[in-house]
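Hi Y.,

Following your request, here is the sequence exactly as I used it, all 380 residues.
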Amino acid sequence: MPAITRELLERLPKTDLHCHLDGSMRLQTILSLAESYKIRLPADNEDDLRKLIVMNEGCSSLVDYLKVFDVTLLVLQTDEALERAAYELAEDAAHENVRYLEVRFAPILHTNSLLPFEKIFESVIAGLLRAEKRYKIKTGLLVCGMRNFPSEISHMARRLHDRLYTFSDVELSRILAIQTAKVTTRLSEKYPTIVGFDIAGPESGYPAKDFYDAFQEIINGHMSITIHAGEAYGPESIEQAVKYCHAHRIGHGTRLIEAKDDSRLRTLYRYFKDKRIPIEICLTSNLQTGTVKSIENHPIKTFLEDKLRCTICTDNRLVSDTTVTDEYLRLAETFNLSAKDLYKLVIYGFESTFLPYEEREAILREVEPILARELLGTPA
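Below is the corresponding structure, written out as tokens. Let me know if you'd prefer a different format.
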């Protein structure tokens, strides 16, 4: 069996199924766009901007972690910026041999320049498709509704707060999530790149079940669903995601571990194993948000021992200063993964995509012999 090295991991075909557009930009692109649009940033050079955005030292909570997106969203308000950011993200992923990338973004956060809502979707799709033409990568777009919609970062939120003043912030978030879901299902018929729907933002105080109506729109459109759950809130968040919102995958899901020995929820833990519901694992991000105290304490070790289906993801390449290769290397070194363990984990990623069945099978047929040769020593 080969030694697990960075060089080997870079060669392997991989997936990244949990990657946020606004958290995965290039620093130079943020500065360039700010200069073009005459936007004043809190820093005017890469070193200082890096100190503000990149969470090398971690932060106190998920809410604290999410504050840095206020900076990247300043420049992601035009069709040109969205198209460029999407293209560059796919390009960066392709350079480390990510064969399939699912990019997620919340279109409602990109409305400050009054772009038509559909144009926001189309701009990101255009960037992803441009990258597909140039590189050996396939992409999908996951559209996010927002659990909360702070008016301090969005002109649209401020206008809605002013005009719909009888609605609470939570009620407005639900309305906007429903609108986002409806547009997503409609545009998915025209753009196959749109592969699913998510709800993002702070978990605590914004339970997934409160967005039932938005997910019903997605279910009626027969689309795939992934939900941020079990990161900043307990296994009840994960239970709601599958029970009320019919999630096909779970984003983060670290606190599912708490269900294993819980008298009421241990059947939920077993349900994930039996139904092969994938958990999108983001090691570095989980450490930085305080979801886990150390990588050594991350529940993925137990998840893998119990044969739950996990897939390794970046979450936010810029904010967490990571790549898929970095995540796999950190995991392999921390838990002494064997090449056979790694083979299974990479395969899980390809099996868990939201691609149509035929396309998922085709990419699996393409990458499996490469993985078998590199990791298991199977002759070509």
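Strands lie at 14-20, 98-105, 138-146, 194-200, 224-229, 249-252, 279-281, 310-312.

Thanks again,
Q.
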